[in-house]
Amino acid sequence: MSSPHTDPQSFLRQLYDAAVHRALPLHNTAAYLPPPPKGRTVVLGAGKAGGAMAQAVEALWPADKPLSGLVVTRYHHTPQRPVGLPERIEVVEASHPVPDAAGLAAAERILQLTQGLTADDLVLFLISGGGSALLTLPADGLNLEDKQRINRDLLKSGAGIGEMNCVRKHLSRIKGGRLAAACGPAQVVTLTISDVPGDDPSVIASGPTVPDITTCADAWAILQRYKIQVPAAIEAALKAGEFETPKPSAEWAKQPVRLIATPQQSLEAAAEVARAAGLNAYVLSDELEGESREVGKVHAALARAAAHGKGPFQKPCVILSGGETTVTIRPQAAGTPKGRGGRAGEFCLGLAIALQAQSNVWALAADTDGIDGIEDNAGALVTPDTLARALAQGVKAIDCLDRNDAYSFFHAVDDLVVTGPTHTNVNDFRAILVL
Q1: Residue in 320, 275, 288 with CA at minimum distance from that of residue 16
Q2: What integer is the mean pLDDT of 109-134?
Q3: Contact at 8 Å (CB) between 241 and 216?
């Protein structure tokens, strides 16, 4: 293990790796699998962890029991198949965060696989973050192009994940409990990896197997709040309640949802590593939301207080947090280069500016799926000399922040965190080291 005192950047990366390792499907699935049924077992699923979850089930399911199905994951997120593991569940890939034709085709096939099931059959759903975009089946009156534009507009708007998924549920033929409803009379069991604040299964991947308490009126209010345009026929259908989702009832208690990995568990795994290295470890919350740059400022204030011996945190320490922040894309003047980066990078940029080159403070923020937004990095590192090194390269932090260009900033100082796909997803991971 790297020492936090001699190699703080490597130590922070070890904390991130510990958080990811805790959330890997193979380490978490066995305890939650139901017994094989009398009939068939059909595995269906969607999410960035979908390929790894499918392989975990294949490895753990009795070899003499029937197993088949289809799971969709993000492009390049299917892990290499272990030697000797037979392929019993088909895994296909599609686009995230904006849906594409491959995701549409996969959703149609998944819905078809629910037909003809009996009471002797089991449907095992594998759900993880990213499933909303990957499992796209537009409501009547919408086409794929409409869904793509609405999705892009939501991503740019600064809407929270719960708001985005409320809209997605009501503009879909498969989300918001509709997929599970199509499986009757078969037994339905959902295994899910949480990537949302509060671990609400109805929000994870827009809850395709979970009843929905939100309404068409809620979805329409969100579209109005963020000034997102929809076709006139869709507006009318939402106002008339024509796209209403299945609501909670006693019948849903027969379709259990089991959380196999959560953000809090991953933060605690990182905290254990920090304590083993002789540091105080504090987990703020796994549910932090808000504008990434503003959350960065708040974390900077906590870190500066700890560095000066003030506040509740005693140095040397690590301050950990998770959740899902947002980035509102700022309008740019004509001719201004388009900014690059995701919410982890923008958090780090806001943090670095607010830290004001505070000595003895280092930080890492990264998405646990290995992808920050749509870029090739998971996140970024912040060091006491981040701003100075950037200035030496002719790069001003505030200019990059103004154009949502965290990727270019951290690329210039070689402080991007690049991991590749991790095959799980428990959302944002943030660690601030104060020595």
Answers
A1: 320
A2: 96
A3: yes
- The pTM of this model reads 0.92
Domains (range + CATH), the chain: 8-20+263-434 (3.40.1480.10), 25-137+172-211+246-261 (3.40.50.10180)
DSSP symbol at 249 = -
Q: Across-strand partners of 124?
A: 43, 189
Give the Cα separation of 20 and 429 in Å (integer). 9
Weakest mean pLDDT among 10-14, 262-266, 325-329:
325-329
Q: Which residues pair with 288 in a beta bridge?
A: 323
Residue where the block lists tokens 């001699």:
6
Q: How far apart are the C-alpha atoms of 281 and 318, rounded to whole Å?
A: 5
Environment class of residue 258 by beta-carbon count within 10 Å: exposed (0-12), middle (13-18) or buried (19+)? Answer: middle
The pLDDT > 90 percentage for the chain reads: 90
DSSP string, 380-435: EEE-TTHHHHHHHTT--HHHHHHTT-HHHHHHHTT-EE-----S----EEEEEEE-
Tokens in use for 314?
């005693």
- Please give the distance of CA 399 from its chain centroid, rounded to a whole number: 28
Site of tokens 């037979």: 86
Q: How far apart are CA 334 and CA 321, in angstroms?
A: 37
Q: Which amino acid is at 396?
A: K
Angle of CA points 161, 162, 168, to nearest 5°:
85
* Structure-block tokens of residue 53: 């979850």
**Residue 142 pLDDT exceeds 70:** yes
At 158 the pLDDT is 85
Query: Would you mind telling me the total number of residues written for the chain in this entry?
Result: 435
Predicted local distance difference test score (pLDDT) of residue 304: 97
* Cβ atoms of 320 and 282 closer than 8 Å: yes
What is the token pair recorded at 403?
Answer: 């154009």
| Sheet containing strand 317-323, strands side by side | 280-283, 317-323, 428-434, 361-367, 379-382, 416-417
DSSP 282-311: EE--S-B-SBHHHHHHHHHHHHHHHHTT-S
Preceding omega of 256 cis (within 30 degrees of 0): no
Confidence of residue 335 (pLDDT cuts 50, 70, 90): low
Cis check for the bond before 185: say yes or no (omega within 30 of 0): yes
Q: What does residue 109 show for φ and ψ, rounded to 5 degrees?
A: -65, -40
Instruction: Compute CA 151 distance to the chain's CA centroid, rounded to the nearest angstrom.
Output: 15
Residue type at 255 in one-letter notation: Q
In whole angstroms, what is the distance from residue 328 CA to residue 155 CA?
8
Count of Cβ atoms closer than 10 Å to residue 155 Cβ: 18
